[in-house]
């Protein structure tokens, strides 16, 4: 870089970065940033030269072992995962004996992958989230090798990109690339009370998925399935977000309130600190102030129909 300057070095080492390959930002975790540098300068993956064997995430098929957290316990066990771009599926097997077939066949259509090193407690921790009938399901995995886990991440991104190109043939890269995978806008613990606001407050883990306009809540931060979900619409549709003081404070230890009003009911949450309260208000308002896209109305309608069915 000293001899040729940053621009010409970039022109050489980033000549052929695939559109789906994730280019890390300043705020991203270490494993993504380090592997981006190694892929560019050590392995020279993006110079445009033909590689043999080809780089794993470019082949449309990937398989290997990942450590996966059990659904009902905290134990991580080795499981075989198989990604197929042609089938648009990610499968995993519970036992060495594959003759029994996969434990789960996950559609690439609804799959998200996001690095969660702090939450999972491993520097290479990766969270998969997907739709399992009417529920959202989380899988938590890691691999000891930094290169391997980032290869898995970009192989999934490649399959997602291929799916999006098929689903939205006229979509530009500018429109499609942000939809490949996403980090969640905000996560953390808040206390939650019930619909009458007289029920005891209980500590819950919350995840705000801004792309889907949904606020999920779980009993614990590594739960496989949510306890509930709240759709966040716009103010003009009867949704609002504001700071509040609860009418009844049974069982709550925290005092910084957040109120989310939907056309159906009011939700009251309590944060431990004012900083957390500010961050949640800002994140939720960011979603509620964004105009609804056509697919958001479809999602809201499906969500309300499901809630009515559950009741």
Description:
- Keywords: Cytoplasm, GTPase activation, Metal-binding, Repeat, Zinc, Zinc-finger.
- One of its GO terms (cellular component) is cytoplasm.
- GO terms for molecular function: GTPase activator activity; phosphatidylinositol bisphosphate binding; phosphatidylinositol-3,4,5-trisphosphate binding; zinc ion binding.
- The protein is of the alpha+beta class and 311 residues long.
- α4 crosses α5.
- The radius of gyration is 21 Å and the shape is globular.
- The strands form two sheets. A seven-stranded antiparallel sheet has the order 4-3-2-1-7-6-5, with helices on one face. The protein has a seven-stranded antiparallel sheet with strand order 11-10-9-8-14-13-12, with helices on one face.
- The chain has seven helices and 14 strands.
- The mean pLDDT is 91.
- Helices cover 28% and strands 28% of the residues.
Kindly summarize this structure in a few lines.
The protein has 311 residues and is α+β, with helices and mostly antiparallel strands. It contains 7 helices and 14 strands.
């Amino acid at each position: 870089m000293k001899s040729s300057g940053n621009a010409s070095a970039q022109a050489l080492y980033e000549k052929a970065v695939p559109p789906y390959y994730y280019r890390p930002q300043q705020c991203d975790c270490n494993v993504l940033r380090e592997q981006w540098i190694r892929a560019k300068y050590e392995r020279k993956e993006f110079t445009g030269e033909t590689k043999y064997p080809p780089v794993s995430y470019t082949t449309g098929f990937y398989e290997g072992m990942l450590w996966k957290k059990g659904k009902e316990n905290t134990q991580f066990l080795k499981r075989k995962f198989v990604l197929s771009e042609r089938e648009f599926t990610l499968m995993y097997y519970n036992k060495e004996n594959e003759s029994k077939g996969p434990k789960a066949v996950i559609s690439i259509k609804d799959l998200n992958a996001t690095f969660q090193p702090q939450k999972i407690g491993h520097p290479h921790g990766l969270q998969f989230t997907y739709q399992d009938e009417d529920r959202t399901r989380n899988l938590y995995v890691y691999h000891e090798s930094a290169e391997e886990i980032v290869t898995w991440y970009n192989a999934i991104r490649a399959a997602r990109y291929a799916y999006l190109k098929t689903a939205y043939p006229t979509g530009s890269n500018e429109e499609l690339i942000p939809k490949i995978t996403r980090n969640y806008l905000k996560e953390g613990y808040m206390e939650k009370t019930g619909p009458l606001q007289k029920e005891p407050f209980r500590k819950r883990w919350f995840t705000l998925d801004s792309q889907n306009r949904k606020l999920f809540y779980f009993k614990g931060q590594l739960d496989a399935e949510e306890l509930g979900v709240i759709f966040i619409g716009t103010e003009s549709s009867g949704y609002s977000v504001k700071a509040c003081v609860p009418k009844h404070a049974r069982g709550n230890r925290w005092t910084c309130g957040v109120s989310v009003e939907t056309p159906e009911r009011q939700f009251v949450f309590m944060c431990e600190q004012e900083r957390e309260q500010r961050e949640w208000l800002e994140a939720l308002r960011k979603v509620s102030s964004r105009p609804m896209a056509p697919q958001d109305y479809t999602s809201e309608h499906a969500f309300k129909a499901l809630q009515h069915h559950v009741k």
